[in-house]
Design goal:
alpha+beta; five-stranded antiparallel sheet; four-stranded antiparallel sheet; 3 helices; 9 strands; elongated
Length: about 160
């Protein structure tokens, strides 16, 4: 069948075709925006379930965590880990790791709380925060900081 130009335009510019084209365009834009705004580092914190907490030298309370790290960039990332949320809380020794480009890595972190600070907190879990700082990349003044929440358990 031979169609005229006007008949062809009316057929292509039907409401259903326009709605489908609009929805497809919006989905493509949303996908592009989500790709552009994704973070350079994905972090999962897994608390050691075998030993919730243990007493180590000098009466310090220690919790062990496993950090699953995913470098989403095309460049190596050097990370330093700090922990905060309770007075005197520290990661022993100060953990650091370098991840290859587009790589997945793991880091075991022992977090310790001094005996004096642990006494009034006994028998409960307390919120803490892990902070992962990357080295600055060329063209940026500061590196990226990723914060992830977890809990610190102090036994009775």
């Amino acid at each position: 069948q031979h169609w005229r130009k006007g008949a062809m335009l009316r057929r292509v510019l039907r409401p259903r075709v326009l709605v489908y084209a609009t929805v497809l365009t919006l989905l493509c834009v949303a996908f592009g925006v989500s790709l552009a705004h994704r973070g350079p580092l994905l972090v999962d914190i897994i608390k050691d379930r075998n030993t919730l907490a243990r007493v180590v030298e000098n009466g310090q309370i220690e919790n062990v965590y496993r950090l699953q790290l995913h470098n989403r960039t095309e460049a190596p990332l050097h990370l330093r880990v700090r922990v905060s949320g309770l007075p005197g809380l520290a990661a022993e020794p100060a953990p650091e790791i370098t991840l290859a480009p587009v790589a997945i890595g793991a880091l075991a972190v022992q977090v310790r709380l001094p005996f004096e600070a642990a006494q009034p907190l006994a028998g409960r879990s307390h919120p803490i925060e892990f902070e992962l700082q990357t080295d600055p990349v060329a063209g940026q003044d500061t590196g990226t900081v990723v914060r992830e929440a977890s809990t610190f358990f102090v036994p009775r």
